[in-house]
Structure formats: structure tokens, C-alpha cells
UniProtKB/TrEMBL annotation:
It comes from Bosea robiniae. One of its GO terms (molecular function) is acyltransferase activity. This is Peptidoglycan/LPS O-acetylase OafA/YrhL, contains acyltransferase and SGNH-hydrolase domains. Residues 5-332 form the Acyltransferase domain. It comes from the Bacteria. The keyword Transmembrane applies.
């Protein structure tokens, strides 16, 4: 299985984990309306999908930017590429969320955002919401605020000699975390950027360096590393206190590192099986799946309630399947064309 396919499969699983986390409260509502009981599944720490995304992002940025190291104008070109990839879809869903929120606020259970929060959302700048949380208008965008920090640091690092790029990025991330941990809480945005989760970007970059230096996991060893990662995830869901800022990086981040090692450092040149190709296709649309699934989950909840279908498991199946289908369509008919258009407009 080629590394790119296995990484895309991992991205698909990460997005699906986040969707499972978000579908369960709505499943409880569906069950309650029918007088049924529903017990949420905590088999895995579902939001660990974010940790996986961050480690994968660190790997991909290094792997996909090999043509930029030591090149004139590399920083500008890198940022243009990342903006073209991230901004169109995120701005679109943020705008849609605002429109729906202003029209039917009860459907989204969201308070009316301030102008500062709206502006901060579009600029990927950490802002306190009217509900007291440091999050953008579309709350899932909190992860993109971290991603944008990483992209800016990566772009700045590309202005340095090649051998200093990754160490410098890692050092800045470590200093941010150290400042918040030792002297915090710091004021925004430093207090937000200084959370330990940003170290997962550095871990992903480290795996990319190991891959470039020839690290390959074969056969039973690769399977063992993947199993160890999955076991660590299961343990993280059941160990008290494993969801703290540092403990979650150790448990969930550690699991993400092992899974990324298994996915990214496999043997090359093997033709992937059809199921793997199918999952990789979902991985291609994982960004769309991450952003669109709350709309589908809430919309499907209203549909099943109006139809009188109160089975929580049926609702979960419909909501998750609908989220995947919506993501594939959104990726094909909006995300890809919008990214191409943005790249042409930015000259990247």
C-alpha cells in the first residue's frame, strides 16, 4: 500500500471519528423524543481525530513542500497554496453557518456572535465568543486557527537555510507552549497558540524527516505499530484524566504518532486494494467531511423527527452516511474547483 493511500485512509478515519463524537448528542435527542434510551459510545476518544489531523498535517507539509526548501519566494508560494486550499471551503461554511444562525438560531443552538468574533473567524484569529469560549463563529474552525499558526511558522521557516527550517519551527512551537505552561495563562492569542496540542505538528514533521531518511516499516512491524496506536487510543478513552492538555497530547497524540508512523512509513509500490482506494477517496474529502458533517447531522435529526423515526442507531447510520456522501459531493463540485480558482487568482 503506497504511503499516500494509507495516509488518506488515516485522514478519513480521523474525520469520521470527529463525526461520531458530534452525532451522539443528537442521537440522544432522537431517542428521547421517542421515549427510548441511548447510551453514548466512549470506546475511543472520538475527538482524537483532531490529534491525528495535526500529526498528519505536520508530515504532509514537509512531504509536499520538498520543492520549496531553499527556493526564492518559497514562503509566499507556500502561503498562497495553503490559503487556496483552506480558505474557500471554510469561508463558505462559515458564511452558511451565519446565514442559518441568523435565520433559525434555535436550530444551531448558537448565540448571536459579535462583530469581533465574525471578523476573527474569517481571519483565523483566536477570539472569545459571546458564550465565553475561544472559538470562531463556526466552532469547528478552532482547529484551523491552529493550522494557520503552523502554516505561518512553516512559511517563515522556509526563509531560513534548509537545515534550520524544521528545527526553528519546532523551537518556536516549544517556546509558545513553554511560555503558556510556565508563565500562563497568557493573553490571547498567545494563550491559545501555546497549548500543548501544537507540538503534534512538530511530531508529524519529525516523522516526515524519518521517512526522508529511509525509515520503512514492513510486514508484522508495521501492523504492530498500528495496533499499538489503536490500543493507546482505547486506553485514552478509559484512563481518568487522559483528556487534560498535556495528558491528551501524551495519550491521544502518542496514538496519533504511532498511527502516522504505520501509515506514512510503509513500503512503497504496492497497488492498494479497492476498499483502501474507497477509503482513500473519503480521505481526499476529509476536509469537507470535517466541515460539513454538523450541518448533515442536525439536518438529518430534523428529518427523522418529522418522519417519526426514533431509532437512535438508525439515525446515526443515516447521519454518518449522509455526511460522507455530502462530503464527497462537496469535494468534487465545490472544494476542488474553488481551490483551482483560488490558486489561479493567487498565482500559485
Amino acid at each position: 500500500m503506497q504511503p499516500i493511500h494509507s495516509i488518506q485512509v488515516l485522514r478519513a478515519l480521523a474525520a469520521f471519528m470527529v463525526a461520531i463524537h458530534h452525532v451522539q448528542p443528537d442521537a440522544a435527542v432522537v431517542a428521547a423524543r421517542g421515549g427510548l434510551s441511548f447510551t453514548r459510545s466512549d470506546l475511543l476518544p472520538w475527538m482524537a481525530g483532531v490529534d491525528i489531523f495535526f500529526v498528519v498535517s505536520g508530515f504532509i507539509m514537509v512531504h509536499a513542500s520538498q520543492d520549496l526548501f531553499g527556493r526564492d519566494g518559497a514562503s509566499r508560494l507556500f502561503l498562497k497554496r495553503r490559503l487556496a486550499r483552506i480558505v474557500p471551503l471554510y469561508w463558505a461554511v462559515t458564511t452558511l453557518f451565519l446565514l442559518v444562525g441568523f435565520a433559525v438560531p434555535a436550530v444551531l443552538n448558537s448565540g448571536v456572535p459579535s462583530l469581533q468574533q465574525i471578523v476573527g473567524s474569517y481571519l483565523f484569529w483566536p477570539v472569545v465568543s459571546t458564550q465565553g469560549f475561544v472559538q470562531p463563529v463556526y466552532s469547528l474552525g478552532w482547529t484551523l486557527n491552529y493550522e494557520m499558526l503552523f502554516y505561518v511558522l512553516f512559511a517563515a521557516g522556509l526563509m531560513l537555510p534548509r537545515r534550520w527550517t524544521l528545527p526553528a519551527i519546532t523551537l518556536v512551537l516549544a517556546l509558545l507552549v513553554a511560555a503558556e505552561s510556565l508563565s500562563g495563562p497568557l493573553a490571547l492569542p498567545l494563550g491559545f497558540w501555546g497549548q500543548p496540542i501544537v507540538l503534534e505538528f512538530a511530531a508529524g514533521m519529525g516523522i516526515a524527516v524519518l521517512w526522508q531518511k529511509g525509515l520503512r516499516l514492513h510486514g508484522a512491524l508495521r501492523i504492530a505499530v498500528a495496533i499499538a496506536g489503536a490500543a493507546l487510543l482505547v486506553a485514552a478513552a478509559h484512563i481518568p484524566g487522559a483528556d487534560g492538555p498535556w495528558s491528551s497530547v501524551l495519550w491521544r497524540g502518542g496514538a496519533a504518532v504511532l498511527l502516522m508512523l504505520a501509515a506514512g512509513c510503509g513500503r512503497e509500490g504496492i497497488v492498494p486494494l479497492k476498499p483502501v482506494k474507497a477509503l482513500a477517496a473519503v480521505g481526499d474529502a476529509s476536509y469537507a467531511l470535517y466541515l460539513v458533517h454538523p450541518f448533515v447531522i442536525r439536518g438529518m435529526r430534523e428529518v427523522v423527527l418529522r418522519l417519526g423515526l426514533h431509532s437512535p442507531m438508525l439515525y446515526i447510520a443515516l447521519a454518518l452516511a449522509g455526511s460522507v456522501i455530502a462530503a464527497l459531493l462537496l469535494y468534487r463540485f465545490f472544494e476542488k474547483p474553488a481551490t483551482r480558482l483560488a490558486r489561479r487568482w493567487l498565482g500559485s
